[in-house]
Write a structure and sequence with these properties.
By secondary structure, this protein is an alpha+beta fold. The chain has a single domain, classed as FAD/NAD(P)-binding domain (3-Layer(bba) Sandwich), CATH 3.50.50. Strands 1, 2, 8, 9, 10, 11, 17 and 18 form an 8-stranded mixed sheet that branches. Strand 17 and strand 18 form a beta hairpin. Helix 9 packs antiparallel against helix 10. The two termini are 20 Å apart.
Length: 416
């Protein structure tokens, strides 16, 4: 079923996924692995997902997300381009207090990986193309969704139709699927923007990720694989006041490097930006419901959080793993997995995890994104206290690795 169907006959499948990004593709592969027929409808041309030009964007992949992709056969293709995160260092400005996470403490391998988005998308696209029960329909768009019958009917922009027992919205923060279902969301903007680019530095990073809390917001240094010439690379996510972001983006190379280096420091020797500069506004959005009759939301369509902990994509991967498990288990029992009573299990499973992490990142960002001296002292003492208290430190590490709580089978590295 992995051929794009344009015969004029409706495409009939078990699940139709609108949005072929990283969360949507992961869900498709999970369902395919359990024998379900899946249609993936994507507005963009798949050729753009694996464009050869490096666009500078990376994702932090938790150990749990790696296990999902390993179980689905997609990890090996991206592993050579994945930089292991062996240590994480958290500091508050120029204070001497440090919170240090060392992967050796849990004896479970790297805490996560930094992978270029193009490498993730290429690996997932190749896996989807080779999946026997996935029909990738791209570039195509959905004009309307009728969910009133025993199956949902999707009307496409080219006049085609897709019939499915379940529709999944995996189409991002501005989800049209969510809007078409009349699902409201809570959202607000932080008045911050993130500047993202790749930097070259003289000394190797040794697999260390850094989070530095500065007045305008966090400044993250994420270790990447060396480039083709052996140059040592990291990705930075530089949070600034939203009104100042355009001015920083417009700086010439010398001035941009000077501003960036003042925040980066000299612990890795000389540092300079390379490649494009990207920016995006920072905010929080939480859908009031993840489900409706014959419909479920995953990933950013259901929740979008501050990147302060690098967990946004990982939440979407856990959504995909949990929804796949609920759907597959219901199907094995002979149930209609598009019914609200089945989908409520998915919502109960994922909503608490997502809301709790959204609240935690919101509080951390608000508490640390200022330069008030008394509060800075309390923050520093708090970092030092957690660093000294082993059980708390290890709990934070397991949360960051995506290995805490009620985990779907795929996150545990098990097959559906």
């Amino acid at each position: 079923m992995n051929e794009d169907a344009r015969s004029g006959e409706p495409v009939r499948c078990d699940v139709a996924i609108i949005g072929g990004g990283m969360a949507g593709a992961t869900l498709a592969l999970a369902l395919d692995s359990a024998g379900l027929e899946v249609a993936v409808i994507e507005r963009d041309d798949p050729g753009n997902w694996a464009a050869p030009a490096f666009d500078g964007r990376v994702s932090a992949i938790s150990a749990g997300s790696r296990q999902v992709w390993q179980a689905l056969g997609a990890w090996d293709a991206m592993a050579p381009d994945a930089e292991p995160i062996l240590d994480i260092r958290v500091t508050d400005g120029d204070q001497p207090f440090v919170l240090h996470f060392d992967h050796n403490e849990l004896r479970g391998g790297p805490m996560g990986y930094i992978v270029e988005n193009r490498d993730i998308r290429t690996a997932l696209l190749d896996a989807v193309a080779n999946a026997p029960r996935i029909c990738l329909m791209a570039p195509r768009a959905v004009d309307a969704i009728d969910r009133d019958g025993a199956a949902a009917v999707l009307s496409l922009d080219d006049g085609g139709e897709v019939h499915a027992l379940l529709v999944v919205g995996a189409d991002g923060r501005g989800s049209r699927v969510r809007e078409s279902a009349g699902i409201n969301q809570t959202n607000w903007h932080y008045g911050q923007g993130a500047i993202v680019t790749t930097v070259l530095h003289d000394r190797p990073h040794e697999g260390t990720a850094e989070e530095r809390f500065l007045g305008p917001g966090p400044f993250a240094i994420l270790p990447m694989t060396d480039d083709e010439d052996g140059g040592h690379r990291s990705s930075i996510v530089w949070t600034e006041r939203a009104d100042l972001v355009p001015a920083y983006l417009d700086l010439n190379d010398a001035d941009f490097n000077a501003e960036m280096t003042a925040r980066f420091g000299d612990h890795l020797g000389g540092v300079r930006a390379t490649g494009p500069r990207w920016s995006y506004p920072l905010g929080l959005n939480l859908a009031e419901s993840y489900i409706a009759p014959r419909l479920a939301l995953i990933g950013d369509a259901a929740h979008g959080i501050h990147p302060i902990a690098g967990q946004g994509l990982n939440l979407g991967i856990r959504d995909a793993a949990a929804l796949a498990e609920v759907v597959v288990d219901a199907r094995r029992l002979g149930l209609d997995f598009g019914m609200s009573t089945v989908l409520e299990d998915y919502q109960r499973w994922r909503r608490f995890d997502n809301v709790a992490l959204a609240a935690a990142t919101d509080v951390i960002n608000r508490v640390f994104s200022n330069s008030l001296s008394p509060l800075r002292l309390v923050r520093g003492l708090g970092l030092a206290a957690v660093n000294r208290f082993g059980p708390a430190r290890r709990l934070f590490m397991r949360e960051a690795m995506g290995l805490a709580g009620d985990l779907p089978r795929l996150v545990r590295g098990e097959a559906l």
